Amino acid sequence: MMADMDFPTLAYQWLVKQRIGVECRFVESPDRIYTPPELFEREVDDKTVLVATSRVFYTSGYIQDIRSVADIAHKHGAYMLVDDYQGTGQIPINVNAMDVDFLVTGTLKWLMGGPGLAFVYIREGLISQLQPTIAGWFGHSEQFQFKTREFDFRPDATRVEMGTPAVAAIYAANGGLDIVQEISVEQICERTRYLTNDLIAQAREHGWKVRAPLEPEQRSSIVMLEIEQPEEVVKALVARNIITDSRPGLLRASPYFYNTIEENALVIGAIAEILESRK
Predict the structure, then answer these.
(1) Which of 88, 187, 217, 225 has its CA at a distance of 20 to 30 angstroms from the CA of residue 22?
(2) Residue 68's pLDDT band (cuts 50, 70, 90)
(3) What is the pLDDT of residues 170-196, one digit of tens each?
């Protein structure tokens, strides 16, 4: 069970397994902003094996109530998996409080570590019970015996490790992690929410439609503006040394802790000039 607003990669992992009997179902957001837990309540049943969804949605910035979704999954005997790529580093997290079984994330986004590294959390009590369907030599219980004809998993979390890690990427990622830990995710969250609220307010002053939750506490630092041909605006902003991104019909601006209110105004002003030049 997934949400139709999850990032496609999450869905693809299960869609390609349909050929071996996996059935994929999706709850549908009514407004492309929120996915209330009640939607999962209606769809999850005793045949559901896994609920897999994002803590933060990439096209609205909505922060899901993961604990409520996890409670629904567990009530029906299903596991709960969270994709936290869009949350880790900017929104505080506690896997025990959320009662999740699995969580995957990486250094690519708010941890400022670049591509090449991913993290997986598995509830400790599940580690010895589950048998991964893919394996690498780092997960072998006798790794350096180089046994080609037999395989036994390690008894601990290292059983999910694959091969030689991307050491260069680790060094790069440590720089970003050091900064995040020095500031603290809690302070980063407070700062980015302040910047996000300001950016949304400025956008609405221009009459632009913002696809974001109304409640500040349910927003992440993802601000989506509904604009025609947003990719053209992105290119024009790059020419002004302003980096944004686009999704179909949406311009995405994502202020982080190192940005300022003055830069928010600069971005909004630049977008306004670009849109005015279209007339």
Answers:
(1) 88
(2) very high
(3) 999 999 999 999 999 999 999 999 999
Kindly report each contact of residues 190-195 with a partner whose C-beta sits within 8 Å and lies 24 or more positions away, as own/partner: 191/257, 192/90, 192/220, 192/221, 192/255, 192/256, 192/257, 193/217, 193/219, 193/221, 195/221, 195/255, 195/256, 195/257, 195/259, 195/260, 195/261, 195/264
Q: Please provide the average confidence, as pLDDT, over all residues in the chain.
A: 96
Task: Please report, for the chain, the start and end positions of each structural domain, with discontinuous segments joined by +.
Answer: 2-117+166-180, 184-277
pLDDT the model gives residue 131: 87
- Predicted TM-score (pTM) of the model is 0.94
The class level of CATH for 184-277 reads alpha beta
Beta bridge partners of 223: 253
